Every structure is written in structure tokens, then in C-alpha cells.
Amino acid sequence: MDATPEPPPPGTLARMVDRAGFADLRGLFAHRDFTLFVLGHAPNVIGVWMTRTCWAWLGWELTHSPLWLGLLAAADTVPTILLGPLGGAIADIGNRRRLAFLAQLGTTSTVAVLAVLTALGMIDIWGLFALVLIRGITFSVWQPVRLAYMPSLVGLRQIPTAIALNSSLFNVAMVIGPAIAGVLIARWGAAAGFGATAASGMVMLFILAAIRPDAPRGDRKTGVRNVLRDTAEGLRLGFSHPGIRAALGLLFVFGACLRPLEELSAAYADLVFGLGVHGLSSILVARGIGSVVGAVWLTRRGNRPGTVRLMLLAGLGAGFGVLAFTMVDDFNLALVLLAFTGFCLTNCGTGIQQALQQSVEDRRRGRVLSLFGIIVRNAPTLGAIVVGALAGWAGLRLPLGGGAAVGIAVFALALLNWRTLERRLEPPAARPGCGG
Questions:
Q1: Are 290 and 347 within 8 A, CB to CB?
Q2: Where do the H-state alpha helices sit in 120-189?
Q3: Domain ranges of the chain
Q4: In sequence order, which residues have a C-beta less than 8 Å from that of residue 249 and are 6 or more positions away?
């Protein structure tokens, strides 16, 4: 009689992954399409940071105007406010793989045009502004589609690990992307950086073409009226669901009160520590190291329960980290505090996204996460504008410290009510003591 064959023992690499505490990753990469998506997304997200560095440098070369840098940043982020909810509604109605491909094609084509025009010396500040705005429009569709699409490639219980892995990729890219762009700009100019970004976008396009098509959804609706109705429904859900509303409120405080330090790092390095570009480089590296460590720790943590408590404690820690940073004069101690702050910021921001992903139905995922994308991209800019306006008469330390104090108060209050927030955001199986 034939015996049922036993499954093969895990290979050497799998055993090493298990021993390092990343066993949950093996479950993720058992999904073929998710594995393909990650292989394409890794170089693509590096390209995102490269292109931001390149257009900022090119804008400075063309104008030497801080105002124009601010306008370029607004062209990149403001479209998400207007188009993000619409993109989320489209992601919930249409074929997410096809939408991801079209949005990625738009961003890649725009950067490719930037590369060609820059290489030929045919770009001016108005042309750069227009192309950054077009990229911002296509990215405002790509972001909610990507946020909704990635979890649909894995099981519900694996969503927290998938988000943590994505956070790891994002934070590693935040360090690697600008570094690569800096080398390319120094050797061959911004055109080389745009060209490399377009190449990374092509990789993502090939990967998306290789992923299996979406299964049809029974509640699919078409037509402009239905899309607009679903957009409005997504906005209502974000503001009416008590758990989602609270998470988005915490995300706004997180962005506007705790993250402006990132936006103002160049000014802080020069005005407070008097170290110029050397100080800025050290600040970015310290913050980046803390973020990468935080993202890797989250990935190693896997699908364990307690997401809500973790994000609240991390937000509280980030607030104290920023507050302490504004009080010290020793630069080395400041770098240590920045690394700690980066660790906490990553855990808080990723934890909020994990909580939102777990609390929303898949058919509404795109619309809710479009609100996440709007806040996470624009709240830090708003906070930086307020701090920058106050810095004219109060300096940088006081308004940054004041924002951190507000963040501490909000997250401390939320931590006092964590059980209520947990019931509203975490499914029963994801709560401590409720796992099956």
C-alpha cells in the first residue's frame, strides 16, 4: 500500500529565517502573487525616493528658491486630497491589478519624460512643476490601489505581517533611494536619477503583468454616478465608524505634531546645531536607522495580537523622543534620540495602518485607505508650515516641542481608553487572549 509522502523538511534558508524569528514571512511568501508583488515593489519604492530627491535638486538648480521647492512639494502631495477618495472608490469597484498597472504606467511614463527633457536641457521650472503635478495625480490613484491590493494577495491573518514587511521596504528605501540619487546626480546629473527611477518602474510593470488577474467581485458597480456615490460612502465611513474615525484622528496628530521634524531637518541642522549639510546627513541617517530597525522589529513580530496598544505606546514614545530632542544641545545625544524617535514613529504609523486594514471589509478597503494616504502625506506638510511660521519669532525648538507635547497628551489620553479602541479596531481573533 502506498504511504502518503511526508512534506519535505524546510531548507537551510527557511530554517535560518525561522531561527531569526521571521517564521511568519514564510507564510507570506507561500503566496505566489504576493511574492511577485514584493519583488517588483522593492525597486519601485526605492525609485519613489530617488525621484523625489531628483526633482527637489533640479528645482533648486533651476530657481534657488525655497518657495519653488515648497510649490513642487505641494504639486506632489496636494492631488491626494482631491483625488485620493476617488482613487479609493475606483480601487473598490474595478480590477485592482489592472488599475495598479495603469497608475504605475502613468507615473513611470511621467518620470521617463522628465529624464528625457532634463537630459536634453529642455526643462524649465514650469515644465518641472507640470510634470511633478501629473505624477502627483497618478500617484494619488496608485497609492490607495496599492494599499488595498497588497493585503488582498494574502490571508486576513497575515495582513499585519504584510504591512510590516511593506514598512520595512519603505524605510530601507527612504535611506537607500536618496543615497543612490545623490551619487547619480553628482556624476551624471538629475536626468540619470530620473532614468533609473523609470527603469525601476518598468520592473513593477512587468511584475504586475505576471500576477494572476483578479477574481471578479459580485458587487462590482460601474458608471460615474456609482463611483461618486462610493466615494461619498467612503468619506462617510471614515467619519462615522468610531474606530476608524479615532485611528484617522490619531494619524493626523501623529503627522501634524510629531513628524514635522522630518520636514524641517535641514533648517534644524543649520539653525540650531550650525552644522549645515553634514548635520543634515547625520540627522537623516540616525532617523533612518531607527526607522529601519523599527520596521524590521515589526516584521519579526509578525501576526501577534495587541496592535492598538503597540501603536499608542509607540506614539507616546515618539512624542517624548521629539520633545527631548528639542531640549538637548549635545549633537551626539540628539542623534541617539532621533534613532529612538524613528523607531517609535515607524511602529506608530505602521500600527495605525495595520489597525485600519484589520477593521475594514475588503470591498471598502480602498476607500478607507485613501483617507489614510491623504493624511499620512499631507499632515506633516501642514505641521511643518505651522512650525515654520511660528519659528520666525519663537525659533524652531519651541514650536516643535509644543507640537510634541500635544502629541504626548493625545496619545496618553488614547492609551487610557485603549480597551475601547481595541474593541473597535481589532477583530476578536487579533486581541490578546482571544486567538483561536
A1: no
A2: 125-152, 159-188
A3: 21-156+174-210, 240-429
A4: none
Q: pLDDT at position 224, please?
A: 44
Q: What is the CATH number of domain 240-429?
A: 1.20.1250.20
Task: Name the grid cell of 368.
Answer: 478607507
pLDDT recorded at residue 298 = 78
Dist. CA 383–CA 399, nearest whole Å: 10
Q: What DSSP element (H or E) covers 284?
A: helix 276-301
Q: Which grid cell is 107?
A: 507615473
Ramachandran angles phi, psi of 329, nearest 5°: -110, -20
Q: Quick check: 383 pLDDT over 60?
A: yes
Are 238 and 248 in contact by the 8 Å Cβ rule? The answer is yes
Radius of gyration of the chain from its Cα atoms, rounded to whole angstroms: 22
Contact at 8 Å (CB) between 277 and 164?
A: no
Whether the per-residue pLDDT at 175 is higher than 50: the answer is: yes
Residues near 75 by beta carbon (within 8 Å), at least 6 away in sequence:
129, 132, 133, 136
The whole-angstrom separation of Cα 413 and Cα 356 is 20
pTM attached to this predicted model: 0.69
> Could you give the C-alpha distances from 108 to 175, 256, 352, in angstroms and in order?
21, 30, 29
Q: 230: pLDDT confidence band, cut at 50, 70 and 90?
A: low
Q: 115-167, pLDDT tens digit by residue?
A: 999 999 999 999 999 999 999 888 888 877 887 777 677 776 777 777 777 77
Higher-confidence residue: 356 or 44? 44
Q: How far is CA 218 from CA 88, 221, 244, 355, in A?
A: 18, 9, 25, 26
CA distance 236 to 245: 10
- pLDDT band (50, 70, 90) for residue 317: very high
What DSSP assignment string belongs to 192-261?
HHHHHHHHHHHHHHHHHHHSPPPPPPTT---SHHHHHHHHHHHHHHHHHSHHHHHHHHHHHHIIIIISHH
Collapsed DSSP state (helix, strand, coil) of residue 264: coil
| 21-156+174-210 and 240-429 agree in CATH topology | yes
- At 26, the pLDDT band (50, 70, 90 cuts) reads low
> 280-308: per-residue pLDDT in tens?
667 777 887 888 888 888 777 766 777 88
CATH code of the region 21-156+174-210: 1.20.1250.20
